[in-house]
Specification:
mainly alpha
Length: 207
């Protein structure tokens, strides 16, 4: 005798769809659409009310911190003033008033005039003889004249570095292979070559 298990569900049979007509025979359910639109409208309304209330609270706190309105905070309609006439005397007065503002002042242009003044000052120092403030008897010479003097006299040569005697246990480093690819030698290699050349040029009696 076979015993059936109560936990086992009967096999599910897929619902057969009648597609012989070629279209849906049942009408669309309008109730779900109405519920969705109603919920959406309620959500939008509640969100708008909350935003409006939060904005009123924030504005109230800001007005409380700013204090009551005065003639400095009053909104003015500048369109009632119209176009101001071009009065040179008024412009000079405004320019003189601007010069009394504490620095740094806002530039009236994009800075091109300041750059032009800087370049003119640099050209004046580079192309003319000028005196040095605080150092009487000294003058700056033009850069072209300085280049001519350097070409005639050459640049000053730094004195050789005086090295002390070698400490006990130390030894003079010797380079057995070039440190570069042969295009440019290092300063240490040049110094070593000079020492070797000077040693080779000494008479045998001095070696």
């Amino acid at each position: 005798m076979s015993q059936s298990n109560d936990n086992e569900l009967p096999p599910h049979k897929p619902e057969e769809i009648d597609a012989s007509h070629g279209y849906e025979r049942s009408d669309i359910r309008v109730t779900g659409i109405v519920v969705f639109l109603t919920a959406l409208a309620t959500f939008v309304a509640v969100t708008g009310i909350l935003c409006y209330g939060i904005g009123k609270v924030i504005n109230a706190e800001l007005n409380k911190e700013d204090g009551p309105d005065n003639h400095w905070t009053k909104t003015a309609d500048i369109r009632q003033l119209g176009n101001m006439p071009s009065d040179p005397a008024l412009q000079n007065k405004v320019a003189a008033l601007v010069q009394q503002f504490p620095t740094p002042r806002v530039q009236a242009d994009d800075g091109l005039q300041d750059i032009a003044n800087l370049h003119a000052h640099e050209d004046l120092l580079l192309e003319h003889y000028t005196t040095i403030d605080g150092e009487p008897g000294k003058v700056r010479i033009p850069i072209e004249r300085a280049m001519e003097i350097i070409a005639q006299r050459g640049l000053p040569v730094a004195p050789p570095v005086q090295t002390g005697p070698i400490m006990t246990g130390d030894h003079t480093p010797r380079v057995t292979a070039p440190l570069t690819t042969g295009f440019v030698r290092t300063a240490f290699e040049m110094e070593q070559l000079r020492d070797e050349g000077a040693h080779a040029e000494r008479p045998p009696s001095q070696k």
